[in-house]
Amino acid sequence: xxxxxxxxxxxxxxxxxxxxxxxxxxxxxxxxxxxxxxxxxxxxxxxxxxxxxxxxxxxxxxxxxxxxxxxxxxxxxxxxxxxxxxxxxxxxxxxxxxxxxxxxxxxxx
Length: 109
Known about the structure:
Helix content is 70%, strand content 0%. The mean pLDDT is 82. By secondary structure, the protein is an all-alpha fold. It has helices at 6-32, 34-49, 58-68, 84-95, 99-108. The chain is rod-shaped, with a radius of gyration of 27 Å.
């Protein structure tokens, strides 16, 4: 068991409090600066763009896709509710596009 003098303990407490305040100020500046807010908004938009949101009747959307991409078959465009990732992966392979490009294209229909 070591014996610390009170002056040493007070210095450690003060140093810890100052370090905590400094870290808090740094985090506040990073999170709530204009750049930080813009970065978070961009990340939110990116995540939203990566979600498949099909609007309307799938048969009509499928028909539009087949008109644009004539080499797509009915089997390629099979869509089961809740399994959109399978549709996206098939279209990604057939069209040679990236996943986010396929999702963006499907959401734009």
